[in-house]
Amino acid sequence: MYLSMKGMPGSISYANSDPCQLYFINVILDTTARVFITFCMFKFSLWCFDKLGWTDMKSGEYGNPPQVGRWFKQLWMWLLLVSISKVVMGALTYAFRDWLIPLSAWALAPLIQWNAAGEPGSLQSRSELFVVMLFTPFVMNTFQLVVQDNFLKALAALKKSCPPGGKGGPPPPMV
């Protein structure tokens, strides 16, 4: 976001734009578009590992008994994918900054207008800060955690619910 604020020759400079707007759009993009990019790279890497026959890289499978080496390999693969997706999102944010900043300003406009009517230091004047710095990151990071947890565990859970013959369904109810 810092680079987006600096601007480039021939583009709109946002050096004086509202940091809340920049942070807001960064949180939204990081927890939605970047998660999708990471998911696509994750699926592609699993496909590649499967084609290469690298059994240590099957997501969520650490051996029986669990092997720390497998876990570390998968952890490093995940950290690499997340790091690459952060760089990709940074480049996309920079490339589309002239579109994203006004979009963020539009999304926060009702709060900004409501803030302007409040006394300085009042709860009303701090509503934008609350929404941008606390509420939105809490909700969106929770969303991101649930989505990533589900696609990381999905393969292992699916394999456990289906027997080797392929004819299975959900596990029987626990009584």
Task: Write structural notes for this entry.
It is a single chain. Helix content is 70%, strand content 0%. It is built from 6 helices and no strands. Mean pLDDT is 78; it is low at 1-5 and 7-11. The protein is mostly helical and 175 residues long. Helix 2 packs across helix 5, helix 2 packs parallel to helix 6 and helix 3 (33-52) crosses helix 4.
Core attributes:
175 residues; mainly alpha; 6 helices; disordered N terminus
Topology:
Elements lengths: L1 H5 L12 H13 L1 H20 L15 H28 L1 H21 L9 H35 L14
* Count of DSSP-assigned helices: 6
Task: Show unreliable segments.
Answer: 1-5, 7-11
Approximate helicity band? 55-70%
Calculate the terminal CA-CA distance, rounded to whole Å.
52 Å
Write down the secondary-structure element order.
HHHHHH
Query: Kindly state the mean pLDDT as a whole number?
Result: 78
Task: Give the gist of this structure.
The chain has 175 residues and is mainly alpha-helical.
